[in-house]
Design goal:
This protein has 252 residues and is α/β, with parallel strands linked by helices. It has 2 domains: 22-139, 3-Layer(aba) Sandwich (Rossmann fold); 143-250, Winged helix-like DNA-binding domain superfamily/Winged helix DNA-binding domain (Arc Repressor Mutant, subunit A), CATH 1.10.10. The chain has helices at residues 33-45, 56-65, 82-91, 107-116, 128-139, 177-188, 196-204, 213-227; strands at 22-23, 25-29, 49-53, 70-74, 98-102, 120-123, 152-154, 157-160, 165-168, 171-173, 192-195, 233-238, 242-250. Helix 3 runs parallel beside helix 4 (107-116) and helix 6 (177-188) crosses helix 8 (213-227). The longest helix has 15 residues, at 213-227.
């Protein structure tokens, strides 16, 4: 059995089951039970909603019937291998990003997985920080990818990425470039929880000179400019996970 390295955070608080926010959903397709549990735990502690499946054919049915933000698929699976699983999903026009896990280390194997439609390839054994980095890369939605002319909005807040204008209740709000990028990221999916690490990667590019608490600092700047002092904030904190933009004003 391969040894998989990674440090699991302790004491992380996850969204409560009664929470209406949209957490990114990941389907882990892995028939090695111990590894599936480890991956699920690490992802859950990063704020993702994780489901697991050990059978390739069953995973195919789930991925066709439901919507996920990411698939993590092992190469060797019962009934239907990972390569065939991804290939059938792509043939069915399911574009959910997929990371292929495999102990195979030959170039032709990697090419086969990518040609089948996988978006990334991670050889076993792997370190969990690397897995998380690849997950963040495939699940983040950079605000710069918004189509030209597409105006983002939720509730009484609108953002025009082309004209670089933000309005709240009809009034223009002056934002710095980073504040604008942070708000645009949150507005792409109102109600979805974005982890601090995803926001850091998306807005600041995970620069080594930037500390994680810069996200909290800029959220406080945004709250002050959008909501003023003493008012309920549009940006809600999900403790231990990150932030979400409420379509209607919510509690801080």
């Amino acid at each position: 059995m391969s040894v998989f390295t990674g440090k699991v955070a302790q004491g992380a608080e996850l969204p409560q089951s009664g929470d209406n926010t949209q957490v990114m959903r990941i389907l882990v397709v892995e028939d090695e039970e111990r590894l599936a549990r480890l991956i699920s735990r690490v992802l859950a502690e990063e704020g993702y909603a994780v489901e697991t499946e050990a059978n390739g054919r069953e995973a195919l049915m789930r991925a066709l019937a439901d919507e996920y933000d990411l698939l993590i698929v092992d190469w060797m699976l019962p009934d239907l291998g990972g390569v065939q699983l991804v290939k059938r999903l792509r043939a069915a026009e399911v574009g959910t990003p997929a990371i292929m896990l495999t102990a195979r280390d030959q170039i032709e194997d990697r090419v086969a997985g990518l040609d089948a439609g996988a978006d990334d390839y991670l050889p076993k054994p792997f370190a969990f920080p690397e897995l998380l980095a690849r997950v963040r890369a495939l699940t983040r939605r950079p605000w710069s990818e918004v189509k030209d002319g597409a105006i983002l909005g939720a509730g009484d807040v609108t953002l025009d990425p082309v004209r670089h204008v933000v309005r709240h209740g009809g009034e223009t709000v002056d934002l710095t470039a980073k504040e604008f990028a942070l708000l645009a990221t949150l507005l792409q999916r109102p109600g979805q929880v974005f982890t601090r690490s995803v926001l850091l990667d998306t807005v600041w590019g995970a620069s080594p000179e930037v500390y994680a608490n810069v996200v909290d600092l800029y959220v406080s700047y945004l709250r002050k400019k959008l909501d003023g002092d003493g008012n309920a904030s549009h940006i809600r904190t999900v403790r231990g996970v990150g932030y979400t933009f409420e379509p209607q004003p919510g509690a801080r």
